[in-house]
Design goal:
about 210 residues; mainly alpha
Length: about 210
């Protein structure tokens, strides 16, 4: 991309990058608010783990364009393209967060839980003082995977008019202009790399050292 191209389209690229970040952040917020509590609940009701995680797995396998298409005719959602994009991205983010929350808590050494119970900790205290801190690195690993996935899939949101960097990519493909394609693809890849690196660093800091 030439400097003249960036001068002409810089404001648009920045605006769409912010829009892309907003869509991804909103979806991740909703996905985390759903998947972490459900993952904790599944550790208390393991009989439900297989069907619930299976449903999240099925959502993950639906092609992104098909997902947006399924949501388009729904009332309330179809009125705003951003709502469709956020719901679809939330669905794609559920599986890694849910699975890692469940696996992280279930993987805690039973001896640690016995000690916590012997100390008289209530179920809520065990959750917030023992289970979630010990499983934090696992949960963050799920968040890391989900965030990178969402940033990539959010480029498809432009197909339903939700904006984001996908607009440049679709516009570039339609006009056979590789500069526009790169103007959308490079910032999207950069966002994914930055998010992955930041969450990876946080994950390593929260990881409990092996003894």
């Amino acid at each position: 991309m030439s400097s003249s191209f960036l001068q002409q389209n810089g404001a648009t690229i920045l605006s769409l990058t912010i829009e892309h970040l907003w869509l991804t952040a909103a979806a991740m917020l909703f996905a985390t608010a759903i998947a972490v509590p459900v993952g904790v609940w599944l550790t208390r009701s393991p009989a439900w783990a297989r069907p619930i995680i299976g449903i999240a797995n099925i959502l993950q396998t639906i092609p992104s364009l098909a997902m947006f298409g399924f949501l388009l005719p729904l009332p309330w959602l179809g009125d705003r393209a951003a709502r469709i994009a956020i719901v679809a991205l939330t669905a794609y983010a559920l599986l890694p967060i849910l699975r890692n929350t469940y696996a992280g808590i279930r993987g805690i050494d039973p001896a640690v839980m016995d000690v916590a119970q012997a100390m008289g900790l209530t179920g809520t205290q065990r959750l917030f003082k023992v289970e979630l801190p010990l499983a934090a690195s696992f949960i963050l690993a799920g968040l890391r995977t989900a965030t990178v996935t969402c940033i990539g899939i959010a480029t498809i949101a432009a197909a339903v008019g939700a904006g984001g960097l996908g607009e440049l990519i679709f516009r570039g493909v339609a006009s056979v202009d590789n500069r526009l394609v790169l103007a959308g693809a490079i910032p999207a890849a950069g966002l994914a790399l930055i998010a992955d690196a930041a969450l990876g660093l946080l994950e390593r800091r929260l990881r409990v050292p092996e003894r």
